[in-house]
Amino acid sequence: MRVSLRLALGFASLMLGLAQTGYAQMNEAAYVITYIEVTPAATEQTSDLLVAHAEASRRDDGNSLFQVLQRIGRPNHFALIETWEDADAQAAHADATHTKAFRAGLEPLLYSPYDERRHSQVQVAHSRAADDAIYGLTHVDVIPTGLDAGVAFLATLTGASRQDAGNLRFDVLAQDSRRNHMTLVESWENADTQAAHSDTAHAQEFRASMLPLSGSLYDERLYKAL
Fold it and tell me: What is the pTM of this model?
């Protein structure tokens, strides 16, 4: 398959970003992915809390994106996707009165700890919106000795997937605390286009190639927006 110069440069950028082992710089965008699991009986109450928290958080200085997602098939599982202009803006949000009130209200509803993971940019492209969008969050844990190979496989997957029909977003973020732990952030126009992507040769080849390099199970979760 012929790869354009632009796509090849994108691959190189991704590989360079993943290979960096330092933390995000203060003037770079800050990303947060949070997984929230509550008791089934608390699903509706949690949904209301999260929607209200998102509305308040979008008004915070420096916020670029604050999405609330509900897991498909597990409605008591939620996720937050946050983008901030820099780490200072994210820290100010975390310390805000409304954030503390939200966390206090959520705490008695949880059945597992509030799982907040701070990330920095590896490769992020402009994303689009759709009413029936399907969102995917996938935790990719690459063993340290397989990081270079894993980076190459991720680069190929990212470039190819962004060209799939119905793709709205396909980004790679790396956890600040463990750079070999990454999150694939995807969105698709609808369930059909997401399913079609999963059936592509490049998606299946990626899964097969990553298996020997994985430090944990390939954890792909699909969501809808609230």
Answer: 0.86
